[in-house]
Design brief:
The complex is a heterodimer of chains A (158) and B (126). Chain A is 15% helix and 33% strand. Chain A has 2 helices and 7 strands. By secondary structure, chain B is mainly beta. Chain B is built from no helices and 9 strands. The chains are: A alpha+beta (158), B mainly beta (126). Chains A and B meet through helix 1, strand 1 and strand 2 of A and strand 6 of B.
Chain lengths: 158, 126
């Protein structure tokens, strides 16, 4: 028999996991896009360091991730779940106003890429995840799986 | 930039239920206009107020979304605040022609320059 300590999802408990989660996300990001932190680019969007704030909510039916990603088009945002990790990516290419501005690449386009990964608890209905983008905020709804109802076991007292 | 200087938010007389933060913003100048771009994610078109009062251009943007009943915030990174940006504008801005545009949390304000200050080419005759 295995005894599992009762705990609310370790990821979502705010007090204990806040610094750890944050660090983990930062590290993940640094690994994925090492060039971004040192890259100095012109423009308002270009100097955005690839981070965006995320809020997590939960009610009895679902978790909701709300990510602030202003200024993207809907088609430039992707959200995917793989191996228990939700990854939200915004990737946009815009025409720079003056070609001379983007000296680093020598092209007339300006690229903006932001990404964030969040590991998910296990009891989710992955097929029913939904996402909506409104007013620059992406809301991802992650429905919880129907919990197994506690069974009553009759114990015979001798 | 000299002409568009940020003003410290002053204590407002109106009843403000929530605190307001200065949004991330940028000012660009071209030959015939100033363009202000500000990040105001979570703001609906209806919750945006822009007005010019004397030398001050004030943008107030209220976050329209509130968590539905029964929702518990388990992890927050965004501030629970509205946005307020006060910029000082001078005679070079044509106040009548200021335009605002809000797309997916990005506010773009176009402040056309007054005709008098636009660069004018003077033809030399003879």
């Amino acid at each position: 028999m295995k005894l599992i300590r009762y705990q609310t999802s370790p990821l979502f408990s705010p007090a204990s996991s806040y610094p750890g989660l944050r660090d983990e996300m930062d590290r993940l990001f640094d690994v994925a896009f090492p060039a971004l932190s040192s890259l100095q680019r012109d423009g308002f969007f270009g100097d955005w360091q690839g981070e965006f704030p995320v809020d997590l909510y939960q009610d009895k039916d679902a978790f909701t991730v709300r990510a602030e990603l202003p200024g993207f088009r809907k088609e430039d945002i992707s959200a995917e779940v793989a191996d228990g990790i939700l990854t939200i990516t915004g990737h946009q290419k815009t025409e720079a106003k003056s070609p001379a501005k983007d000296k680093a690449t020598g092209t007339a386009t300006q690229e903006r890429r932001v990404s964030r990964s969040i590991s998910l608890p296990e009891n989710l209905e992955l097929e029913k995840i939904q996402a909506a983008y409104e007013n620059g905020v992406l809301a991802v709804t992650l429905p919880k799986r129907e919990e197994v109802k506690p069974k009553q076991i009759a114990i015979e007292v001798k | 930039m000299n002409t568009l200087t940020k003003k410290e938010p002053q204590a407002s007389t109106e009843t403000a239920p929530r605190r307001a933060i200065v949004p991330r913003y940028n000012v660009e100048e071209s030959a015939d206009a100033f363009t202000i771009t500000a990040f105001v994610p979570g703001v609906d078109r209806t919750a945006l107020e822009t007005h010019v009062d004397g030398e001050n251009l004030t943008v107030f943007a209220r976050r329209t979304w509130t968590p539905p009943a029964g929702w518990i915030a388990v992890y927050r990174e965004t501030p629970n605040a509205d946005y307020r940006l006060v910029l000082e504008i001078d005679h070079r801005v044509n106040r009548e022609a200021i335009k605002a545009e809000l797309t997916q949390g990005v506010l773009k304000l176009t402040l056309p320059k007054a005709e008098a200050v636009k660069p004018r080419r003077i033809e030399i005759k003879g």
